[in-house]
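Page 37, continued from 36.
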């Protein structure tokens, strides 16, 4: 297949774009949400460029989507003050609400959010190059996550509505909010992964300062009014700008109680160090990963290849759960590489809304140069590009590259590429792979491909203390959202799932008295005349 054929659908003219996916002109987005009001930023703005280009008479031209506020430290601290005042040391309106009342507010938000589906999906495609199917899936999955979170909280509250009697003590145990949360999500899932921390933080009674991802920032715009209409003033505050101008001052203030961040472990470490009271800072972090796919000798090779291609190249490999290095037995290396080449050649390249497109341009400036450097380093150390058009670049597009054979001397062996480069490492003994996993700085997930129950069983026992999840004959993934999502080493801090997220953004609190006639009578009267929102036996249906 020629390079020209690979790229022939990548740069449409305006007239070739379906009407429902066309932009209405650049979005001059100066609005931000502060203390219950949508305000207009009067300062500097940052341009937002699309990874997509349009075909013109003079050649492809990158699309400028609009601008967003370049807010400064002063503006960020105003948002923090709003969140701090709304929390009011736990006595604010939001943390004092009953669980049923907070659920009602989140349900109101979900209703407003669903009305913005088409606009958010369109912006996902234009801002980060995610294809239509995956953009729709991200939006719908986020809505489902909110519904599941509501149901999980109802169940949690039902479990908390009863009293415990232990060793002469009568007590009720409930989960309460922690304080002010700084929420920052990733650009690859700027809606879904952000909301998997944002929504649990809110629904548990915390107040939030939310800074959208560096790419995928405009898609929050259609939701600003939904946030404003759905929550009391100061509960959710949305800011924009460079991290060094906003986030650094927030962390340095010491007023952030929970840091919810998805990004690199280096950035997370640098920001955590700024907090003057680190023992008072709870962190919920989704960080780097170098998830290996491990091909074993007794394997369904066709299934392994299909899963590895999907695992390595879904959304162009820009997922923390992507397969980022593949180990294959030397006896199967040639057959595996040949099948991998064929599978990649079948993937369709194009604009996100085109039917069946799987490969699209990359949103991150300079990413194609970075990937090229990784590939060149591997070639200098003896590897080759194994597939046609591999590592070919055209503007922001980087064609998937299978790099083989990869060895320890190469950057690709340990460095997370976060893009469409597939390092393949031949091995002779499985002990070599075990050593790699144990020595790795990362420990999110891995995938085992094989059919020998004895071998796979032994590897499960050997590697389960190294990663947060082992996938058998399937790619690495986050879902279902009811499963724990975590990692070891430099890959995560804290555990997320629908169930776990409610717990990570709350703290168990006990109200206790002696199990005596007087104690029981007092507690019973408090419940009967409803003088406490904590002590209650209400049951949420």
């Amino acid at each position: 297949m020629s390079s020209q054929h690979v790229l022939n659908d990548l740069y449409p003219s305006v007239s070739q774009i379906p009407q429902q996916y066309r932009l209405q002109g650049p979005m001059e987005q100066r609005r931000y949400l502060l203390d219950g009001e949508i305000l207009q930023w009067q300062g500097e703005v940052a341009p937002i460029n699309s990874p997509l280009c349009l075909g013109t008479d003079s050649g492809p031209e990158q699309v400028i989507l609009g601008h967003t506020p370049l807010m400064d430290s002063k503006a960020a601290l105003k948002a923090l003050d709003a969140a701090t005042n709304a929390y009011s040391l736990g006595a604010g309106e939001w943390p004092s609400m009953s669980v049923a009342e907070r659920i009602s507010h989140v349900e109101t938000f979900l209703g407003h959010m669903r009305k913005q589906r088409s606009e958010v999906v369109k912006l996902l495609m234009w801002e980060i190059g995610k294809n239509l199917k995956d953009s729709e899936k991200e939006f719908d999955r986020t809505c489902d996550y909110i519904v599941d979170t509501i149901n999980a909280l109802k169940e949690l509250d039902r479990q908390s509505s009863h009293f415990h009697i232990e060793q002469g003590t009568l007590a009720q145990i409930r989960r309460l909010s922690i304080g002010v949360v700084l929420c920052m999500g990733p650009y690859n899932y700027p809606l879904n992964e952000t909301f998997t921390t944002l929504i649990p933080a809110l629904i548990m009674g915390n107040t939030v300062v939310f800074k959208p991802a560096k790419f995928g920032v405009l898609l929050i715009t259609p939701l600003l009014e939904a946030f404003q209409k759905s929550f009391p003033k100061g509960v959710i505050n949305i800011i924009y700008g460079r991290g060094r101008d906003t986030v650094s001052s927030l962390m340095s203030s010491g007023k952030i109680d929970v840091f919810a961040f998805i990004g690199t472990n280096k950035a997370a470490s640098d920001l955590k160090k700024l907090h003057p009271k680190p023992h008072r800072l709870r962190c919920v972090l989704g960080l780097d990963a170098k998830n290996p796919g491990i091909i074993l000798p007794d394997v369904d090779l066709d299934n392994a290849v299909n899963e590895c291609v999907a695992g390595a190249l879904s959304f162009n490999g820009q997922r923390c759960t992507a397969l980022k290095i593949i180990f294959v037995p030397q006896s199967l290396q040639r057959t595996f590489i040949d099948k991998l080449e064929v599978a990649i050649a079948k993937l369709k390249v194009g604009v996100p809304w085109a039917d069946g497109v799987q490969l699209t341009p990359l949103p991150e400036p300079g990413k194609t140069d970075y990937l090229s450097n990784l590939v060149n380093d591997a070639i200098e150390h003896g590897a080759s590009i194994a597939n046609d058009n591999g590592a070919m670049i055209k503007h922001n597009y980087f064609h998937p590259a299978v790099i083989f054979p990869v060895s320890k001397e190469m950057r690709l062996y340990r460095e997370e590429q976060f893009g469409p480069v597939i390092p393949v490492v031949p091995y002779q003994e499985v002990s070599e792979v075990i050593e790699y996993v144990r020595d790795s700085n990362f420990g999110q997930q891995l995938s085992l491909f094989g059919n020998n129950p004895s071998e796979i069983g032994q590897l499960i026992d050997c590697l389960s203390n190294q990663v947060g999840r082992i996938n058998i004959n399937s790619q690495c993934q986050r879902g279902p959202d009811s499963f724990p999502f975590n990692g070891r080493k430099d890959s995560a801090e804290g555990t997320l799932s629908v169930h776990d997220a409610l717990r990570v953004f709350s703290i168990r609190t006990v109200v206790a008295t002696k199990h005596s006639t007087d104690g029981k009578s007092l507690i019973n009267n408090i419940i009967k005349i409803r003088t406490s929102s904590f002590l209650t036996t209400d049951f949420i249906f």
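The longest helix spans residues 132-160. Flag for discussion at group meeting. Residues 171 and 511 are 5 Å apart (CA to CA).
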